[in-house]
């Protein structure tokens, strides 16, 4: 995975402000690879993975791409089925990531926006990992404001993610998003400055 630029992992639990920080990075001219957006494109209308997913899980795709409800029902609580799905999706995402790196080889830094970086992907080949974090009450308020969110669903999502404290302990840099947008932007600028002075060896 290592290319000719610094590779930075960006992660954080739900409601911590990762998407906002990713947007700030793009505004600053840093290329950002969005793992979730890549998966959505691969599974959306005309997506490259639809034939393989339909073959493995008949009836879970249609003109609008993957039916998330049907596919979720086909793999939820079924480790073997989930592993079969991941064997389809993960190599395609990895290939898209390599293409992204090649496209941005002239950039001094690229960012991989990966929600479950510690839980699934791991930090191999990355020069640094930035974790976005906010106080638990702020996180909960943000998440509960989302359409269709419930206390039970929020609890389930948290249970599937590594605790924020553990993510912060594993991070090279922690970015507090529980402050104002401008304060977060200033803190991010300081983090980027520090990363720019890394020697380039993967952490």
TrEMBL record:
Subcellular location field: Cytoplasm
Residues annotated to bind ATP: 15-20
Keyword RNA-binding set for record: no
Source organism per UniProt: Novosphingobium humi
UniProt xrefs under Gene3D superfamilies: P-loop containing nucleotide triphosphate hydrolases (3.40.50.300)
Domain of life: Bacteria
Protein name stated in the entry: Dephospho-CoA kinase
HAMAP family for this protein: Dephospho_CoA_kinase
Family, similarity comment: Belongs to the CoaE family.
Catalysed transformations (reactions): 3'-dephospho-CoA + ATP = ADP + CoA + H(+)
Family matches, as CDD domains: DPCK
PROSITE patterns the record matches: DPCK
